[in-house]
Please model this.
Amino acid sequence: MASNNAYPAASLTPRCPSSVSSATPPIGQMTNRHFGLYLTLVFVLGLALRVGFTHVLVGLDSAPDPARNYDETEYELFAAQVAAGHGYTYPGGVATAIRPPGTSAILAPLYILFGRSVFLAHLYFCLLSALSILAVAWVARAMCGSCVALLAAAWIAVYPGHFYFSHCFFSEVPFSLLICLATGLSFKAYRRGGHVGQEVLAGLILGLCVLTRPQAVMAFPIAWLFILGLSKLRCREVLRPAFVTSILAVAVVIPWAVRNDGAVGKFTISTIGGWTFWGAHNEVVAADPEWRGVWKPVDELVNEDRPLEGTEVEREAATWRYGFQFLEENPGQILPLVASKFMRLAAPFTRTENQLASWIFAIAWIITGPLMLLGMWWLRRKDPAAFFLLALPMAGLLATVFIFYGSIRFRNSISTLLVIPAAYAVCTIYESKRSNQVRL
Model:
């Protein structure tokens, strides 16, 4: 999410670097030596927490369990298929595009080098999750200084909404790392008045973000809407990096979509979107408060009037059709469903029978959520560039929830970005209290 005194307090958008004179002094001071030492300790503790948590919860040699969650089962399976030279296919050689390929593509090199070892895969995902600690520190230090960076790193190290996913092969682990890196690269390029290398790397990583969680694509039209709609953003220093990163991201995604066109018959990133859409828009979830706003497996919705037959693409087309048909026939359900989706996204308590886990997640979010909003409010005034770049993935998340459904998992996928303004708020409050100049 470093600030600039040249920005007026009421400014809503980042100015071009040419109009910026100097960076806002960071909160607190810390030598590089002390920062590196403390960050190393935080990283080691965060990695140990993730490895220990995985060992206790499922076991480091535990294979994905379809009964627990089918997402990780297919991500791991496709990685093994790619590593074995069979391509992105089911056993037997049946090509598929049901899942976005990013998570499997990140896991596959490990299997290519060492064989299909779930023990190493678990350690690998724990490491990827822990690397997010360093990524958060790197981005937060650039935006807000060393003290905020160290607090944000410690925050994400112990934040249950982040370390929880280290035990399984979900897309949250690589995506939260990638989106943090892309945000940091974009911010650094902006602060330098443009840097081709950082812009290119940001674009490539953003493309991989889309291939990992296609919902990330929602942030692109939102970004361009603001860039083209606000005169302050229509300058070379903003337009060029936005164009470069967008083009590079598209260049990463296009080859996969072309592959899918030839392999399954549809130019797409994934064929799971319709299943998700129908699962969130049907008479069952609309009528049941326990399900309203979330997603229900469509296997329970199929009947003679709504069959799922034919190819993978034909089945997905049917799910989109059934979902839209429900909304057309029940327009009065649209607003209640949308409201429920956003309530699910913001809910503190997760859907689990483990009450201890539910309370741990809830307390962490009850602390983080309000501080994140407060930090974003202050960043909006003190550093619009940081605010804008942090807000884009959040806006993309809201757009995803509006179209599909609400889930705590969705917000946890960008937890690496949420803790930065939260840490900034804490440090700002601390510094303000020291000087008795608290301003909201």
Notes: The longest strand covers residues 89-90. The chain is about 65% helix and 0% strand.
